[in-house]
Amino acid sequence: MGIRATSTLVKDTAEVFRQVVSTWVHRDIRDETEQALHCALMMRLMAIAALPVIVLPVALLSYFSPQQLIPAVLVVSALSLLLVGYLAQTGRWVQTAMAALFGAAAAMAALVSVTGGLTSPFLFWVLVLPVEAAWLARSRKALATGLLALVTSVGLVAVAQLMWPQSLAPTVDNHVFGAVASIAGLVLYAAMMGARLLKTPVQPENPAQQDDTGVRSMLNRLPGLVTFHDSKSGVCAVHGSDAKQLMNTVGELSGGGFAEHIHVSDRIEFLQAIDQLRTGQDTRSLIVRMRNRMSATAEDQFRHWSIQLVALRDRHNRYNGFIAQSRDITSEIELRRSYVRKVGEAEAANEAKTRFLAAVSHELRTPLNAILGFSDILTSGICGNPLDDKQSEYVGLIRQSGQHLLSVINSMLDLSKIDAGRYELNLEPFDIREAIQNCEAMLSQQARDNKIVLTTRVAKGHVQLTACRRAVQQVLINLMANAIKFTDENGVVTVDAMDHDGFTRITVSDTGIGMSQEDLQKIGSPFVQIQADHARQYEGTGLGLSLVKGLIDLHEGQFAVESSPGVGTTVTVDLPLGGPREAAEQGETHAASKMEFPPRLAPATQSDTEDVHDQAKTA
Predict the structure, then answer these.
(1) How far is CA 417 from CA 343, 422, 467, in A?
(2) Helix 128-137 vs helix 32-62: angle between axes, to the nearest 10 degrees?
(3) Among positive and negative, which fits the CA dihedral 365, 366, 371, 374?
(4) N or C: which end of the chain has fewer CB within 10 A?
(5) Distance from the Cα of residue 415 to its chain's centroid
(6) How far is Cα 617 from Cα 568, in angstroms, rounded to an integer?
(7) pTM here?
């Protein structure tokens, strides 16, 4: 019972001491793992400060005189306490650990030198240096640093023995007593390490080690490079189908080497991502530049990697590290840059085209005004004798060609405005009947000249529409002019208008040459004309339907074309009754129904429809 009580008392005292020391940890250290590291280092430094006082009686009996020992004890204890204060005030764990490690190496070198040098029984105590460093930091780099401290301590002993072989020899020849003390100390230290190992649960370096080989095989088949990192961000396991290739690119990743290969300007983002995982976030994704040691040119010195980070936590939700899945996405980044560059070039070319069309159209309009004006003056005979028949014919051709060219220029200007988003719609409510009548008055002569029947029908009542009157009339003129142009003699062109599911439906049909399904795919592209067998006999630039589609899109309407070769064409335009703002609500449920050919108004009774004209206009 006495031994058990003593053991319990020692444990309780150590726990109280650990809690006291934990309050000394710097306030900026908030991660539990880092706090435990700081606390462990402080406790070791406190133990080093107390150890010389404990072993003082043994040392006095075996080797030393008080004049030699007491100053050394005071120096070691003072330096240990100073390091504790430095760590508590600054939180710089790495610098403190390095100073403590090499300070201990120097102290052991001094102890070994004055107790026999390379023949001292205390020489084996330098083995504690790498063991303690590796145990405290749990990394290969820490073990390497401890081995360096061991070599440094032995080197100092060798140098001291070469320089002062006699003066550093012990004053009392009691090597047996020193050997017993040294062995006892090492046995006690080994027992303490065994207790630590039994108390600390064994954690596998790689969480995949807890599973069978099937899990590791699955990890090795995952795309990219899959790395497991401990709580200090060191790499402890590597998997992934592209692991060999990517590691050949960047080099060694073991320990803390992963971050060292990241471009300096990207390391901050990477470290911030790890810090966010420490503080509770589960996943993070980022793109960084990794060093490419296989690069042959300066441009290929770094490769772009996409990294997905997932935090690893124990059953108490404490942070244990993270998993990183990395992929080389350099080709994707280059493709994105090429895409952005091509889009910029296309936008610049389109803007240049728009500016060119606007400038050319403006420059052409000025002489055209003079041509049209003077041709009108010559035709009217204001300037002198009336023209003879031949002169009148030539002047008429000049005026007709000028009007055609002006129409083309106006269409090009409107298209460029629509393309640049600068076409302004002056929305107003108006009766579609008036717009159809105006267009019919403008084109009726052309229909009579071509011996074509032009019929317009509007549903009974007022078909009110909120839209840009000028744009709607331009749509009607283009559709009706196309229908007349591509309809042979004795053909029929019909224009219908009616309300349909919140839209005004305008249908322009003809009995003309028609189009095939392949030709319909080209409808609406600027400067494209349907190359039917005899279509090229008709004049045009291919801008009409492209302009129609652009104006309908500005009104948020719908446009559909149905045609059969040799039978005719039906063009259906649906414009929202309340203007473009209502089209978004109506458009989700509205679908252009299939039009019968030739089109009929529904219901098809005389009492429900009202012809704009009682009978068709014929030539």
Answers:
(1) 20, 5, 18
(2) 160
(3) positive
(4) N
(5) 35
(6) 20
(7) 0.43
Token pair of 296, please? 């042959």
* Better pLDDT: 527 or 490: 490
Question: How far apart (Å, rounded) are the C-alpha atoms in residues 208 and 213?
Answer: 9
Q: How far is Cα 229 from Cα 369, in angstroms, rounded to an integer?
A: 79
DSSP string computed for 538-565: S---S-HHHHHHHHHHHTT-EEEEEEET
C-alpha count within 13 angstroms, C-beta hemisphere, residue 416? 20
Find where tokens 């040799």 sit: 566
- pLDDT(532) > 50: no
Question: How far is C-alpha 564 from the geometric centre of its chain's CA atoms?
Answer: 48
**Confidence band (pLDDT; 50, 70, 90) for 205?**
very low
Nearest to 489 by CA among 453, 538, 456: 453
The CA radius of gyration of the chain, in Å to the nearest whole number, is 47
pLDDT band, very low/low/confident/very high, at 287 (cuts 50, 70, 90): very high
Strand ranges (E), 379-511: 427-431, 453-459, 464-468, 492-500, 503-510
User: CA 472, CA 455: separation in Å to the nearest integer?
Assistant: 18
For residue 28, how many other CB atoms are within 10 A of its CB? 8
Measured at the CA of 291, the angle between CA 290 and CA 294, to 5 degrees, comes to 125
Where are the alpha helices (H) located in 115-253, listed in sequence order?
128-137, 140-163, 175-199, 213-221, 243-250
